[in-house]
Amino acid sequence: MARTDHPPAAARATALPRVSAAGRSVAPGTRTEVIVASSPATTVLGPGGPGHEQVVLCQDRSSGLRAIVALHSTALGPGLGGTRFHPYPSEDAALADVLDLSRGMSYKNALAGLDHGGGKAVIIGDPRRDKTEALLRAYGRFVQSLGGRYVTACDVGTYVEDMDVVARETRFVTGRSEHSGGAGDSSVLTAYGVLQGLRASAERAWGSASLAGRTVGVAGVGKVGRHLVGHLVAEGARAVVTDVDAGAVQRVLAAHPGVEVVPDAAALVRADLDAYAPCALGGALTDEVVEVLRARVVCGGANNQLAHPGVADALAERGVLYAPDFVVNAGGVIQVADEVDGPVPERARERAGRIFATTQRVFAVAQEHATTPVAAAEHLAEERMAGVARLRDVWLPRG
Ligand SMILES: NC(=O)c1ccc[n+]([C@@H]2O[C@H](COP(=O)([O-])OP(=O)(O)OC[C@H]3O[C@@H](n4cnc5c(N)ncnc54)[C@H](O)[C@@H]3O)[C@@H](O)[C@H]2O)c1
């Protein structure tokens, strides 16, 4: 039976006014500017669609670099987002991913209260085979050539040591190692932020932010998932985990022997969970998963959890409270943004702690406007982007 404190789809109004996705008045049909920065060969990408400010293809034949940088919005400041190093099957697939990811960064950064817009980069290739010093440094030079419109960091397939190499060619890089003056691994703060999202979700679902006695399923116990399990155990929750990598599971069990393991994510979503935390790759929430999911709350660290936008409605219709990924997994970007000014760990942790209040606000706006938390969060982000972008109308002297 459907559990409800969300209204059914028919009752959900489109009460929230839409602001331009990039936070400024982009006319309908405005096309993405595609700039080709290439050395020495040039490949031109087609227009990426409306809403993005700039998309840059970076190609350097001698190092084998093929990368795409997408800037969705610089309404709040320079685009900030990580570099994904992945063996995409085609340039089109890479382009689709970077457009999606950079748009997500605009919303994430806006809701995290950062003075950064949304940007992201993808490097096309197998990081285990293709990652070389020359390639990373070539990439760093392309980032530098954008003059600060884009600030890069780590993502799937890139690590703090890689950003140290990129930093030899550009100053527009964050997410570096501690011994290079950076703040180190951002997954620690990401997991802390997800915990705050879970606490706010628990408060909305069950009337108390305590997770003690709750059963939380964690799919993917890599960097973020593993730290999240640590928090859950410390909070007195029961963790049930799964991972395709047996080594990752073993590391969690070594640290927390009481954790229960299930064979795969399909078994996890069918388990008797209070909350489900997707912490592996994107697309974990499909129509099929929504059908069988037994958890009352979904809140996890993975990016782009919804397989398609309609899944947000499907979750609400089944009475599942979904804490949008881009709200609750902002701890990492909060850390790397903090590093730009010189890292202060306590300041970054305090900012990540605000994810609790932001998640509460998202749920409250969703309820007030009878819409989904995703629509509410997007609205709040767009409102901030538009409001700050308008400040550019206030004239300032040069210099
Ligand atoms: N690291 C960060 O600071 C950060 C910040 C924001 C968002 N994220 C997102 O969180 C997610 C996890 O990031 P991470 O840094 O922990 O990556 P990671 O690679 O360290 O961990 C991912 C884990 O998921 C496992 N996995 C992959 N497919 C799986 C499947 N089908 N079922 C179960 N497990 C599976 C992998 O084996 C791995 O252990 C990603 O979506 C990432 O984009 C990470």
Automatic annotation (TrEMBL):
Active-site feature positions: K120
Family membership noted in the UniProt record: Belongs to the Glu/Leu/Phe/Val dehydrogenases family.
Gene Ontology biological process terms, A to Z: amino acid metabolic process
Residues binding NAD(+): G220, V221, G222, K223, V224, G225
InterPro entries recorded: Aminoacid_DH-like_N_sf, Glu/Leu/Phe/Val/Trp_DH, Glu/Leu/Phe/Val/Trp_DH_C, Glu/Leu/Phe/Val/Trp_DH_dimer, Glu/Leu/Phe/Val_DH_AS, Glu/Phe/Leu/Val/Trp_DH_bac/arc, NAD(P)-bd_dom_sf
Gene3D superfamilies: Leucine Dehydrogenase, chain A, domain 1 (3.40.50.10860), NAD(P)-binding Rossmann-like Domain (3.40.50.720)
UniProt protein name: Glu/Leu/Phe/Val dehydrogenase
Gene Ontology MF, one: nucleotide binding
Ranges of compositional bias, category Low complexity: 7-22
Matching Pfam families: ELFV_dehydrog (PF00208), ELFV_dehydrog_N (PF02812)
CDD domains to which the protein is assigned, alphabetical: NAD_bind_Leu_Phe_Val_DH
Transmembrane segments: none
Residue intervals of the Glutamate/phenylalanine/leucine/valine/L-tryptophan dehydrogenase C-terminal domain: 184-393
Tagged with keyword Protein transport: no
Region (Disordered): 1-25
Key words, A-Z: NAD, Nucleotide-binding, Oxidoreductase
